[in-house]
């Protein structure tokens, strides 16, 4: 059995249901509860044959009650469901869940308090969900009530505000909650609720001067006061955000200088939930999270790690068998697909560079013969990638095009079919080896060295320290082989690294002014500098990832690429 939330439209009544009938059942007795609190007891469902929907085996009345709420224009969240697996007995599942849920107080605020006590006792969200037979999402929703001010929680307990309003308030900042409470407490004011509250929180919001981290005199635009003169608003939001982002960047820099190893700036509107994290001091690797609301408000959360990271740290610290596990390396700023893309481009460039340094190629080949490698059978590197964009980018690169041209010439030189994809075919065919030997006997030393260079290029293993060492020694300039393309930008995920890239090409002021912008926006800024679209063009710019030796943008490093550079440096030095 798996517990999950499923959209209403993906559920349908099953003929196997003992209460199945054409007429909808009477749900008048449970409808008020479903309107107020939603569906609490999970439905029993099983996957339909089409793989897109689910049949209701038990819980038909709950389904029709939720359907009635939706038809009446009410908001209906995805319904909690227990998805049957092969061998599950529906009656037993339903009885077990009802029994478990009976142990949980129906009052949501008491549920919240119960879950908090269990959480402080070391129980995870998954543990709590399993204990009461509810979904993890239901547990997270209750724990999210802890983000509310006590007065809002009390009003909800007293049923003075409805569930939809509370859900929206859990996404509000503390300042927004206080502002809403003022309206709620004033009998002559109107406190928005439900959908109107969502619009009030996130739609068409003016930026108050109270949220500015910078001195107001630094803002050169107009400030508009409200009718009572109690609060000012920035008339030019763009100017505000430039100054606010610069101030956020300064906060980040100050925190890093103060000894915090990592400061993560969340995207505008992204909330920080304490129940998904664990309080972790700076000395134990805790990081700082900075949240920025759509209204410009900034909150700083010092000393936290995600619950998963904190659990992993405790497990590593408790391990006595391998002391090295106590300190985990920083999460690389490059994903595996991004590392793959960069490795293959660097590999292609070094392979081609070998063709012009045949003495070096000879020495590398001898080193392979003595020390061996994963490729010395011999076979060409397959340049494997799961990304079609990466494959196309490599295939059309200058390096691979030049290599293909040289391959045709060498194949012709050896009297082999020029349409062959590789010169290396180590399949143990004696006749092929003898034929090549006879052909090589007819060639000059210079031509044999030319063949040798291509063989070494084809059998150079991608993603290794050897590529790094060769590229550094040969002073390979990737500008001769590579140019920025969509595949490269599409693989960049780490926001801090992208911001550092903006700083690399556009300077600190530009990077700081956009520090809280999405990664997508910041990547466009880099593009604009490259193309000169609205910004001063930076010609022949090369990201650090494509330099020899390789360099990363953050302490997270580039994973294998950073490791290979360190290994090469230690051996060469």
What is the rounded distance between the termini? 58 Å
What structural class do helix, strand and pairing data support?
alpha/beta
Strand numbers in spatial order across the main sheet: 1-5-3-4-2
Helix content: 40-55%
What can you see in these coordinates?
The protein is an alpha/beta fold. The protein folds into four domains: 2-157, Conserved hypothetical protein from pyrococcus furiosus pfu- 392566-001, ParB domain (Alpha-Beta Complex); 163-202, no CATH class; 237-326, no CATH class; 336-480, no CATH class. 47% of the residues lie in helices and 9% in strands. The chain has 24 helices and eleven strands. The chain has helices at residues 31-37, 60-71, 90-102, 108-120, 125-132, 136-143, 150-157, 163-169, 174-185, 194-202, 237-257, 307-318, 336-354, 358-371, 388-395, 398-413, 430-441, 445-458, 465-473, 486-490, 495-506, 508-513, 519-531, 560-572, and strands spanning 2-6, 11-13, 43-47, 54-58, 79-83, 223-225, 232-234, 263-265, 277-279, 287-292, 298-306. The strands form three sheets. A five-stranded mixed β-sheet has the order 1-5-3-4-2, with helices on both faces. Helix 13 (336-354) packs across helix 16, helix 13 packs across helix 19 (465-473) and helix 16 crosses helix 18. The radius of gyration is 31 Å and the shape is globular. 29% of the residues are buried.
